Amino acid sequence: MTEATIETLAAASPEASALRRRSISARLSSNWSVRISGLVLLVLVLMAIFAPWLGTLDPTAIDPSISNALPGTHADFTTLDGNVIPHWFLMGTDSLGRDIWSRTLYGGRVSIVVGLSVAVFAVTLGVALGLMAGYFKWLDSIVMRIMDGVMAIPGILLAVTLIALFGGTLTSVVIAIALPEVPRVARLVRSLVLSIREEPYVEAAVALATPTWKILVRHVLPNSFAPLIIQATYVCASSILVEAILSFLGIGLPADLPSWGNVMAEGRSQFNQFPHNVLFPGIFLALTVLAVNMLGDGLRDTLDPKFNKRGE
Q1: Among 73, 99, 209, 238, which one is least packed by beta carbons within 10 Å?
Q2: For residue 186, how far is the Cα from the chain centroid?
Q3: Closest CA to 103 of 60, 53, 155, 149
Q4: Mean pLDDT of 19-32
Q5: Confidence class for position 97, pLDDT limits 50, 70, 90
Q6: Closest listed residue to residue 262, CA positions, set 76, 111, 65, 144
Q7: Cα–Cα distance between 201 and 236 in angstroms, integer?
Q8: The listed CATH number (1.10.3720.10, 1.20.120.330, 3.30.1700.10, 1.10.357.10) that belongs to domain 3-45+106-311
Q9: What pTM did the predictor assign?
Q10: How far is residue 220's CA from residue 233's CA, in Å, rounded to a whole number?
Q11: Spatial distance between the Cα atoms of 3 and 9, rounded to a whole number of angstroms
Q12: For residues 13 and 22, what is the distance between their CA atoms, to the nearest angstrom?
């Protein structure tokens, strides 16, 4: 291989990259799964962001005089300082007279933050471990055996143990949910790196004595983005569901912090008489998880060329 050929392989064509980006954008915009799920997620995120204006009531404010009000009830809400607020309770109230609509909106904030935080944490740590295991052969067996050991422990059991040790704060819940996801991301990145490091452009960069960190950042990592983005959506959806499960069981976030799992947990004892306490936050939870999974499927259909070839 001549030096000119090496330089040609090592340098990426800006025109080809721009054409590829336009092609991906066109495929994404024409994918109905991506469009519908993206719209649903946008609406849910905007509702969570503007919860203080859409909710109108403090999600922790109580008024026992209107406890378990049915959806659509119009009543006077009396605050602790004696102020009377006429209010439409779109989703009713719980056993303490708290507005389910407001609690559901604020719960979306918590669930979305947990999902995104877990995805970022798990992908960041998984990428670092996967890059090292895939590129440095002497680290492969060490890192992968540790990942196998973590995967051998059920994710829920590991999360419960970590929360019991460090408490049910938002940070500890995020870490407890993210750690079981790290090995899956690391194994995915490792398999990608094992394939990419044999490509001609990587060999060209090595022949040009390019520093290892530049090879990983400029050549290996960018070619792993598509599978990583898809994996991140699945991690996000799974973490939102796991957080709700932990909070529903009473071992997740503190009960005074409104999350969809906490709202449903507080209404389960009266589900037969007042199902709206569980039904509405459950619908929001299901919509969010479904939309994120649909987004992941749409991204896989669009960005994964191997999947597209299998579908032809």
Answers
A1: 209
A2: 17
A3: 60
A4: 64
A5: confident
A6: 111
A7: 33
A8: 1.10.3720.10
A9: 0.81
A10: 21
A11: 10
A12: 14
Instruction: Report whether pLDDT(5) > 70.
Output: no
| Tokens coding 255 | 């009960």
Distance (Å, rounded) from C-alpha 140 to C-alpha 147? 11
Distance CA 262, CA 110 (A): 11
Buried b (16+ CB within 10 A) or exposed e, 266-283: bbeeeeeebebbbbbbbe
Side-chain half-sphere CA neighbours of 30 within 13 A: 9
Per-residue confidence (pLDDT) for residue 29, from 0 to 100: 67
pLDDT tens readout for residues 160-189: 888 888 877 888 889 999 999 999 998 988
Q: What is the pLDDT of residues 243-276, one digit of tens each?
A: 888 888 888 788 778 888 888 988 888 888 888 8
DSSP 67: T
Place of tokens 């994404």: 28
Q: Which residues contact 295 (CB under 8 A, 6 or more apart)?
A: 33, 34, 37, 38, 41, 233
